[in-house]
Amino acid sequence: MFDACLRQKLAVQKERGLYRCPPEVSENDGRTVTVGGRTLINFASNDYMGLGHSLVLAKKAADAFGRYGTSSSSSRLVSGNASVIREAERAYADYFGYEEAIFFPSGYQANMAILSTLFGAGEMLLFDKHVHASTVKGMQLGSAPFKGFRHNSMGHLTKRLEGVRGNPVVVTESLFSMDGDTPPLDVLADLKEEYGFLTVVDEAHAYGAMGPGGRGIARGIADVALGTFGKAMGLFGAFVLLPALYREYLFNFASPLIYTTALPEAHAVTAMAVLAEVAQADDARAHLAHLSRYLTRLLTDEGLSVCGEAHILAVQIGNEDRAHDLVKRLFDAGYFTFAARFPTVPMGRAIIRVSLTATHTEADMRHFSEALSRLVHDDGRGAVAV
């Protein structure tokens, strides 16, 4: 009976065009991947700066793991609070301009810790409706009430603030992972000054790739900021930047921190090497920004509807089956992309998510644009209306 229930749910998933079965990647050098013996240009990677395949970082990581071993073997509160981890956390806090930092095994875990622990019945969490699933899960696990506001709508946020009971906390992202857009941060700053709310900003897709020195774009607004090592910073795990008081509180009350094995010391040593690479990568960041503008222009000139203000572009498709089919046909044409479908995006608003990296070239942009345009116009349904 139980197995039959699972099979039925999977069958429904397939009928709705939402079934997921990711292809196996046998090789990956950042710009390209190999799947089933075929080498494809990779437009599905979050390795925005190409650091995930840096030989320099790989050597430093190998040296660090050779010296410190492969595991911390316990939680931070048992015996895993190594001095080298604290050194790395202080280095990150100093670099990004915060009092303190905490490293976590994953961004999902970090978001759950922040949202489920720091805020309680005396607060009201007001969140952008396009925030990451881990943010939503963190709010659901916590005791603070929460209400959403329309994506990047400061007008709707203002209405929420005017009717709020309790201390307001605004939860948003600096660069949204699917839409590729940013909130109007200047307006958000004005609202913060007027209403005095705390702000939690997920900068996972901005740190390393945006802002001076890769410091992101929300420092003047975010009281608490989340970053990941596993995207532009080319490693794994995550970090939270926050006031010292909040760090102390999380160490005493955050279940996702207290009851998990700490990242190994070698990770912290490598993370400091990552910071040095990020600090000197202004040319790569400029190239990445140029590629984004260039591809956006190419796609819109072909009549496609494109959202995104940085290295994440969302090509609007709409129908889930069509988006999935286009991605399969792009695969056949030599391109590895990702179709974002419900529940990642609202039903009927499927997209092809295009991730750019500093290792891509202008030629990659031209050839991809030509291929996608041809496929969209040749399937008999034409381009998606803006």
Average of per-residue pLDDT values: 94
Mind telling me the CATH superfamily name of the largest domain?
A: Type I PLP-dependent aspartate aminotransferase-like (Major domain)
Total domain count: 2
Going by CATH, the architecture of the largest domain would be 3-Layer(aba) Sandwich
N- and C-termini, Cα separation: 46 Å
Biggest β-sheet description: 7 strands, mixed
The name of the CATH topology of the largest domain is: Aspartate Aminotransferase, domain 2
Number of strands: 15
N-to-C series of helices and strands: HEEEHHHEHEHEHEHEEEHHHHEEHEEEH
Count of helical segments?
Answer: 14
- How big is the Rg? 21 Å
| Percent of residues in β-strands | 15-25%
Seen as an oligomer or otherwise, the chain set is single chain
What structural class do you assign from the helix and strand content? alpha/beta
